[in-house]
């Protein structure tokens, strides 16, 4: 049994990760400033003796009493709409937050994993994206606050690994979806689900020919768990290589919700990546990992969550 700190514990990925760690028999301390996270995501964990929650912002000095074996730094606004609203905080949680947590891990002799992102590749000029590709990021564009924070986070983590011999891991997480995504976080998948279930037109940006590759959350968490157990310190892409255009995603969601919604087109946001697909050969080789849940099955599982959400929303309005 390990004692593990998870930052961003009340978020989409953080809450699934805490759940998995507890299921594996670990003691978990969840930390979150609740800026984009929601306590509803972890209320079922709050009752468990294996789980503690600290309401805290990791851009300030982080203190955790007692021993720690591992830290997952998963705190950050992660949807483009969120980090556009909170650009400075996004930069601080990726930079200062990471520095504090690396310092904490060093003082406790703990390992640490950072939640990096496919955004380190920016609007990629290589396709699919392998870990060796260095990316095409506009540092002063609207997405730069997230992309550069995450690139700095990777650099800092490698520096601590090389300088102090610390056990660090870098997960480059591609688009992930599933229950507990925040409706209204502005991302394509939750936006399309909510629009379809309300019978509103789906807002596709640009002509919808840009691509993404969506990974179901359970698959992603399995990859994260295996990476924690590995002794691999270089970045690892984690995502599902099943690539689809945004327009096709919208059409799929209209189909599986049985909605009468149409599609309307809005301007493409600045620096929106044209295409994205992970090369997961490293994860296959090092972790023996690959996703198991296809998009169609994953969307059906996710539908149940958004249905419940829209029903509750109707009750409360
Ligand atoms: N997108 C869209 N309609 C929306 C929200 C997003 O067409 O209501 C597009 C967005 O421009 C991007 C893709 O969907 O090309 C995925 O966007 P998302 O915000 O989910 O995440 P990203 O992968 O860009 O970080």
What does the secondary structure layout of this molecule look like, with pairings?
Blueprint: E1 3-7, H1 12-23, E2 27-32, H2 43-46, E3 51-55, E4 70-73, H3 80-85, H4 87-108, E5 111-117, H5 144-164, E6 168-173, E7 176-177, H6 188-198, E8 202-205, E9 211-213, E10 215-216, H7 217-229, E11 235-238, E12 243-245, H8 246-257, E13 263-266, H9 281-287, H10 295-316
Helix pairs in contact: 1-7, 4-5, 6-8, 6-10, 8-10
Bound molecules: uridine-5'-diphosphate.
The site of uridine-5'-diphosphate has 15 residues, from helix 6 and strand 8.
Any overview of this molecule?
With 317 residues, the protein is of the alpha/beta class. The protein is 41% helix and 17% strand. The protein has helices at 12-23, 43-46, 80-85, 87-108, 144-164, 188-198, 217-229, 246-257, 281-287, 295-316, and strands spanning 3-7, 27-32, 51-55, 70-73, 111-117, 168-173, 176-177, 202-205, 211-213, 215-216, 235-238, 243-245, 263-266. The strands form 4 sheets. Strands 3-2-1-4-5-6-11 form a 7-stranded parallel beta sheet, sandwiched between helices. Strands 7-10 form a two-stranded parallel sheet. The chain is globular. It starts with a strand and ends with a helix. The mean pLDDT is 96. Bound molecules: uridine-5'-diphosphate. Uridine-5'-diphosphate (UDP) binds at residues 79-80, 175, 187-188, 191, 203-205, 210, 212, 246, 268-269, 272. The site of uridine-5'-diphosphate has 15 residues, from helix 6 and strand 8.
């Amino acid at each position: 049994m390990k004692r593990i700190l998870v930052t961003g514990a009340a978020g989409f990925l953080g809450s699934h990760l805490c759940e998995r760690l507890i299921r594996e028999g670990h003691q978990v301390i969840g930390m979150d400033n609740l800026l984009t996270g929601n306590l509803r995501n972890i209320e079922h964990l709050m009752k468990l003796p294996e789980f503690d929650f600290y309401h805290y912002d990791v851009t300030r000095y982080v203190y955790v009493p007692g021993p720690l074996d591992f830290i997952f730094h998963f705190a950050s606004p992660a949807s483009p709409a969120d980090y556009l609203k909170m650009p400075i905080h996004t930069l601080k949680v990726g930079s200062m937050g990471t520095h504090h947590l690396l310092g904490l891990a060093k003082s406790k002799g703990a390992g640490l994993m950072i939640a990096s992102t496919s955004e380190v590749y920016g609007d990629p000029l290589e396709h699919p994206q392998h870990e060796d590709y260095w990316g095409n990021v506009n540092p002063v564009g609207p997405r730069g606050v997230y992309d550069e924070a995450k690139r700095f986070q990777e650099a800092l983590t490698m520096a601590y690994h090389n300088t102090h011999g610390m056990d660090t891991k870098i997960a480059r997480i591609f688009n992930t979806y599933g229950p507990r995504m925040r409706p209204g976080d502005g991302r394509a998948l939750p936006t399309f689900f909510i629009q379809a279930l309300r019978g509103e037109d789906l807002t596709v940006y640009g002509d919808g020919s840009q691509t993404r590759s969506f990974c179901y959350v359970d698959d992603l968490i399995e990859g994260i768990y295996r990476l924690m157990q590995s002794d691999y310190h270089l970045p690892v892409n984690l995502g599902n290589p099943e690539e689809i255009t945004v327009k096709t995603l919208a059409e799929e969601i209209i189909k599986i919700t049985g909605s009468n919604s149409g599609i309307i087109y809005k301007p493409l946001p600045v620096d929106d990546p044209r295409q994205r697909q992970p090369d997961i050969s490293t994860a296959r080789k090092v972790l023996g990992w690959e996703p198991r849940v296809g998009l169609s099955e994953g969307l059906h599982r996710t539908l149940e969550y958004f249905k419940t959400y829209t029903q509750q929303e109707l009750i409360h309005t």
